[in-house]
Amino acid sequence: MNLINLGSSNSIANQFLAQVRDKEIQADRMRFRINMERLGEIMAYEISKKLMYEPRSFESPLKGTIINQLKSQPVLVTVLRAGLPYFHGFLNYFDDADAGFIGAYRKENAEEIKINLDYLAAPGLDGREVILVDPMLATGKSFIRSVNELLTHGKPRHLHIACLIASPEGIEYINENLRLPFTIWTFSIDEKLDSRFYIVPGLGDAGDLSYGEKL
Length: 215
Fold this sequence. Notes:
The protein contains six helices and 14 strands.
């Protein structure tokens, strides 16, 4: 397993992460969404360093030149609805990428979480770099369920799991259950899951903070 914690080194990303966690700043939904988008852009840039490139020639006004370019755009996949602002940051940078969308949600009881997935729209994934974008890696079950459904569209060459915040339990679950080459990217590995399977300290419900509470 490759695990990259971008928050372990100093950068402006830590300021944006602090703001999405701050319960007073969270009251401003637009600012919350913008900070999520900014973090998506930063992570997209970091992931872009690991993709495949090839030299291509260009004509500038004065002379031809060669610049390394992406061999192909990755496929971006996000989980509705919490992932949308974060996903937009990735789409700002990989602006010609194919995109997929998953409708997944969790049903809770006192002892466990069950993941329901009732919508999937994705392009062909066989042999491609895929970035699965979801802000919170809590139990890891929704990620594994989503990946299993995505595999009906082909086996990626490499899967990048892009989350804002991860729990140790979620990281362990993915490492034990994912059977293809992957990298987990995050800005923070938090302390633990609580009794309701929420990340502590986490940031709350990213979907509700972005768009309002759901019934």
